[in-house]
Amino acid sequence: MVTKNSIEFDPYVERKAFDETKEGVKGLVDAKITEVPRIFHIPQDSLTDTKPSVSVSNLEIPTIDFASVHVDTASREAVVERVRYAAEKWGFFQVINHGVPLKVLEEIKDGGLRFHEDDPEVKKSFFSRDFNKNKFVYNSNFDLYSASPSVNWRDAFSCYMAPDPPSPEELPVTCRDAMIEYSKHVMSLGGLLFELLSKALGLRPEFLKSMDCLKTMLMICNYYPPCPQPDLTLGISKHSDNSFLTVLLQDNIGGLQILHQDSWVDVSPLPGALVINIGDFLQLITNDKFVSVEHRALANREKIRISIASFFSSSALPNSTVYGPINELLSEENPPKYRDLTLTEYTMGYFENGLGGASHLSNFRI
């Protein structure tokens, strides 16, 4: 028998066995396991690091009200200033009065939950790890076979909703209408966000959009079921996003934390709000003016948590465009800090390393 501490423990074999069930973490919960399998155990040095620091427990990421963004020039400039501050100092902010109807937010959360709670055989028909073959991909841990130190307590489905959206027939009935409707609103909000971020950089409003930052949008619905031993694992390991920008809708359960001033800060759910964060690509092209911040999600014992992340990034799709620091932002005092690269090159290394390790962005510094 292989004991818990046996030298015969082969993470690859156990990860593969888990993958081949095609039932994900939900399958483990349905089997009523009482102990978290070894492949999910986070490294010991991470175990003492799962609570926010007392010194920053009262800190909150900025919240920005978009209600006045279309009122007049002065009001819009005030919003731009708040966006600039948040993008430079935090890398994260929440937006309220963002224009996405509350009903649409509730329907995409409900649709995501319906899919993940559906019959296992239905979900298995969508199981894949290949975006080249499937528009809609369901699996557990995109980085399961990477160098990631542990597997996360999370299942997910992923789908590119722009620029080449799937036909309705390619999406599950449980969440089809909700995905199509929500993605329309997120693309519209993304256009506004990139305009505000362009202005915050001192550039013309359409600048980032002209760089195709808004062109591609990947929607991922994360499902975090209750965990019997939440202190041994994570819902999602520490990472920064391989995107230009990410729009996150989280439910009211909580668990998202960001690394701010070397301490973990809770991103408390705010009803009706959307969480916005800067991705690695935006930090690169702004030459570190905007910051892509590491974040994670805790596991919890009691409740199911759902979140829907929309990444403005081509990620796994072929893309030959070369990106580097924006020339208009550079000077003798501010020379380029990164070499030019393609998003495809970046993403290949990002996927190979997996989540939980050092920031991949540091590999491209000059």
TrEMBL record:
Gene3D superfamilies: B-lactam Antibiotic, Isopenicillin N Synthase, Chain (2.60.120.330)
Keywords, in A-Z order: Iron, Metal-binding, Oxidoreductase
Coiled coil: none
Alphabetical list of InterPro entries matching this protein: DIOX_N, IPNS-like_FE2OG_OXY, IPNS-like_sf, Oxoglu/Fe-dep_dioxygenase_dom
Keyword Oxidoreductase attributed: yes
Gene Ontology molecular function, alphabetical: dioxygenase activity; metal ion binding
Pfam families in the cross-refs: 2OG-FeII_Oxy, DIOX_N
Statement: the UniProt record of this protein carries the keyword Cell division: no
Domain named Fe2OG dioxygenase: residues: 215-314
Superkingdom of the organism of origin: Eukaryota
Names of the cofactor(s): Fe cation
Protein family: Belongs to the iron/ascorbate-dependent oxidoreductase family.
Name recorded for this polypeptide: Fe2OG dioxygenase domain-containing protein
Species per Swiss-Prot/TrEMBL record: Microthlaspi erraticum
